[in-house]
Amino acid sequence: GKGQYDHFMLKEIHTQPTSLRKTIEGRVDLDSGSTDLDIESDLSEVETVHLVGCGTSYHAALFAACLLNRCGLSARAIRASEYDLTAGTPSNNTLFVAVTQSGETADTLSALRRANDVGLDTLAVTNVVQSTVAREADEPLYIRAGPEIGVAATKTFSSQAAMLTLLSQHLARVNQYASRVNNIEALLSDLTDLPDAVEGVLQSSNATRLAEKYLDENAYFFIGRGLGCSVAKEGALKFKEITYEHAEGFASGELKHGPLALVTDRTPVFAVCADDSSKTVTNAKEAQTRGAPIIAVSTSDHSIVDTADDHLSIPDMHPVCSNLLANVQLQLLSYYCATELGRAIDKPRNLAKSVTVE
Ligand code: M6R
Fold this sequence. Notes:
The structure is a single chain. The strands form three sheets. The protein has a five-stranded parallel sheet with strand order 4-3-5-6-7, sandwiched between helices. Strands 9-8-10-11-12 form a five-stranded parallel sheet. It is an alpha/beta fold. It has helices spanning 8-14, 16-24, 55-70, 83-86, 106-117, 132-136, 155-174, 184-204, 207-213, 227-243, 278-289, 304-307, 319-340, and strands at 28-29, 34-35, 48-53, 74-79, 94-100, 121-126, 139-142, 220-224, 247-251, 269-272, 294-298, 310-313. It is globular and about 55 Å long. The chain has 13 helices and twelve strands. Helix 3 (55-70) runs antiparallel to helix 10 (227-243). The model has no long low-confidence stretch (mean pLDDT 96). It binds 5-amino-5-deoxy-1-O-phosphono-D-mannitol.
């Protein structure tokens, strides 16, 4: 049941310290500074990684592609529904990673079958044991987040991102093409501290107050760079899904290439500054000049806080972790805006938890 919570979504947001612990449990060896993923496939010669999913799972794929690129591997996040038209003819050394909470999404399954048909190595990062995608991939990597009831994916995004982070570090260690400059130890150590940090954000968040303040606006923009770009996109998806308000998430730098035409004093801009973010500050200021309220999602000592109208605070950690903490703040924001608006939070209109048609 929902226990003390009004909705499954809020319960699942608050479950994240526990679900993240389960994702990571037994998979990190801090003494040796390495991952222990129990993967049988030999990934030492993988040259390219295709991360494929839909919706929130696609955003986790984007997050992971960014991270893998930083490890020197060539990685692409591809929307499952576009895989047939955009993947080209993958080389034999391509690893296909299906990212799907349910393991039953038709678009993702169809892309996986295509990858299996052309003989790629395939992995499934999924929550549901023995789901179709888990069975049809060479190997499943279970995120162990526990059942998710709310249509809006929350804890499973965090766990997918954490699992894919572990996979990226596994690849960085075993793969001959990966770069060795990646500081695995620091990342893994922060990742094991992430569940406690999520707890801290959940306890201290002022998202309720901001939700009340920014309730009646024309549109909501979410911007970020790198890992923060996937968080911005995910923040906007969650926001539109459960509030029914118009929201867009994109790379900070894109604001000036079109969306700025929509910016007014009725379009709050949420700026995720949890990574290399000085350009995001510049981009946010451009929107502010046109009257838009800026809400910084950053550490308290970040330079954007001086100019921002409001602030959602996150602790200073490795960008993988601070971006996931920024995402938790945005989950809370969406949830509280949707409750203020009286929306059907666990079952938003027109949507299903798992989409089994292409
Ligand atoms: O089960 P999956 O992860 O494959 O589902 C993919 C999307 O349908 C899903 O993430 C959807 O976008 C969520 N409702 C977003 O909250």
